[in-house]
Amino acid sequence: MSQILTKEMARNIFYGGSLFFFLLFLALTYQTHADISKGDRHQLLDDPQVGEQIRLGKKIWEENDCIGCHTLLGEGAYFAPELGNVYVRLGSNIDTLKARIKGLINMPATGVPTRRMPRFPLTDEQVDALAQFLKYVSEIKTNRNWPPTKQG
Predict the structure, then answer these.
(1) With DSSP H G I counted as helix, E B as strand and the rest as coil, what are the percentages for the chain, rounded to 5?
(2) In the chain, what are the domain boundaries?
(3) Among 151, 146, 135, residue whose Cα is nearest residue 54
(4) Does the pLDDT at position 41 exceed 50?
(5) Is a pLDDT exceeding 60 seen at residue 34?
(6) Which residue among 76, 92, 104, 113 is least enclosed by CB atoms within 10 Å?
(7) What letter would DSSP give residue 75?
(8) pLDDT, mean over the chain
């Protein structure tokens, strides 16, 4: 019953396994491209319940590369505070959030040059949209209860 693995059997196992995993790789690649082309990666933009203001806020967030310094639900850079719960942290008041955003983006250039918030020339409409986007993000229920504390 105990057979010795011959070179021919080993070669067949190698070629068969290589062919199987190559075909598996092709199938998974095809599935990924099909999912991306359906728009599964941009659910926020396709969701009919999300308003135009939240979409604009997301666009402003991306265009100004806010995630280059801040984290949002644990994703992004850890250079500046987590903003996934900034709405809750400021007392769940949209007007307070808008005022805080306006104050930070118009802050005088003081302090250590490498550790200050850049000035962004945002209009009041853009600030409102960004605040609505951050409010929307703070209401997302995450599986891991992120951020773990109110401070972020």
Answers:
(1) 60, 5, 40
(2) 7-38, 49-138
(3) 135
(4) no
(5) yes
(6) 113
(7) E
(8) 82
Whole-angstrom Cα distance, residue 86 to residue 152?
A: 8
Report yes or no: 33 and 41 within 8 Å, Cβ to Cβ: no
Q: What is the CA radius of gyration of the chain?
A: 24
DSSP string over 6-38: PHHHHHHHHHHHHHHHHHHHHHHHHHHHHHHHH
Q: Could you tell me which CATH class the domain 49-138 is placed in?
A: mainly alpha
Predicted confidence at residue 2, as pLDDT, reads 59
Q: Confirm if 70 and 81 have CB atoms less than 8 A apart.
A: yes
Q: Is residue 74 very low, low, confident or very high in pLDDT (cuts 50, 70, 90)? A: confident
Q: How far apart are CA 31 and CA 3, in angstroms?
A: 40
Per residue, the 3-state secondary structure of 61-74, as one string, reads HHHCCHHHCCEECC
Q: Is the pLDDT of residue 150 over 70?
A: no
